[in-house]
Amino acid sequence: MNTTRSYRKFGAAVALGTSVALLAACSSESSADATTETSPAQINSTATPRLAVSYDGGVVILDAATLETVDDVTGIDGFTRLNPAGDGRHVLVSGSAAFSALDVGTWTEGSQFYTSTPALTDVKFGATAPGHVVRHDGKTVLFDDGTGLVQTFESAALLDGRKPETVDYTTPEAHHGVAVELSNGSLLTTVGNEDERTGVVVLDEDRKEIARNEQCPGVHGEAVAANETVVVGCEDGVLIYRDGAITKVQSPDAYGRIGNQAGDEDSTILLGDYKVDPDAELERPTRVSLIDTATNQLSLVDLGTSYTFRSLGRGPAGEAIVLGTDGALHVIDVNTKAVTKTISVVDAWEESVEWQEPRPALFVQDGTAYVSDPAKDAIHAVDLATGTISATGELDHTPNELTGVTG
């Protein structure tokens, strides 16, 4: 394990929330003390959720309640992906050669709530082509598409600013894949190579194979449902893994591709996208899929508008939420399969053919749906209970990726 302090020196803390006192330096080995060595941390009366918004050249950190800018972390070159690290404090920035930990500057220790100035840390997980980041059961799993290297670490171990010890596994062949570690230590990974992806394999805690299914052409994406059920998408349906068995659920169309999913670990039903044209340069689907992992049934819901891979989310009660190109949030009751609410947020837009290009993105946290608005360099917070926009933040950059941490 790397025990070197990893935070760069940065300036005075940004005061957010109700300030109680500045954290004084002391000798105990807590994550608050690790921050105190380089930047004053501030004690607050409650947790302070924050958002991370990428743009060409950096990441803007926003207060999740007010959408005011906390800091602008610059010097991040090239197209990057953002994913919560799983500890409530850090975001993993996927660049050209590593998953790098960005300290968003908000966290909780016991009953104490802290904030500090955000900064890109020196904690890096090497990867030639950083891909999916999966969080489940207190573990964070990283997948390197360039080598097939899977790195797993305890999510909370990242809190103190040191690089956590990882448990590594390398797939037999490199591919654009994903992996998730389950509570019993078993590891589910995709199967594929640079030419094709065919299914999944499940390995026990000693990494011996216990289940395999290669009836999943174009396997992509992952989500976890209730009862620790894992679902991955195929070009003709999904694979469902639960209790040592893998089940194939067929799409109603010969080509019915599900490549992105949004799960809720308290719900047996997953939300997925749904595409039917294998020859399209860019298909703009209007239907989404709902996969019931308890009954192994797949249902389709037509929204009457298209959406993108950044459009899927889940609400606090397990409702499915889809951001349409009509500029509205479409809220779906996953049990009745009906759209129960439509909330207008941004102007209508059209998806770019280049997937890296900015387009409105959805991120849901604590009953609020955050929607980026690249056309106006803004971000909106939508109260899902009332269906109203509760805040709008103006940005100095055009937003691209959007995520957040709870603090």
Question: Could you explain the architecture of this structure?
Answer:
The chain is mainly β and 407 residues long. The protein has one helix and 36 strands. Mean pLDDT is 90; it is low at 1-38. The chain has one helix at 31-36; strands spanning 19-22, 42-44, 50-55, 58-63, 69-74, 81-84, 90-94, 98-103, 106-109, 112-115, 119-126, 130-136, 139-144, 149-154, 167-170, 179-181, 187-192, 197-203, 209-213, 220-225, 229-234, 237-242, 245-250, 261-262, 269-272, 287-292, 297-302, 307-314, 320-324, 328-333, 338-344, 362-365, 368-373, 378-383, 388-394, 402-405.
Morphology: globular
Secondary structure: number of strands: 36
Largest sheet: 4 strands, antiparallel
Number of helices: 1
Strand content: over 45%
Q: What is the overall pLDDT average?
A: 90
Q: For the record, give the distance between the C-alpha atoms at the N and C termini, rounded to a whole number.
A: 25 Å
Helix content: under 10%
Strands ordered across the widest β-sheet:
1-2-10-9
Structural class computed from helices and strand pairing? mainly beta
Spans where pLDDT lies below 50 across 5 or more residues: 1-38
> Roughly how many Å is the radius of gyration?
21 Å
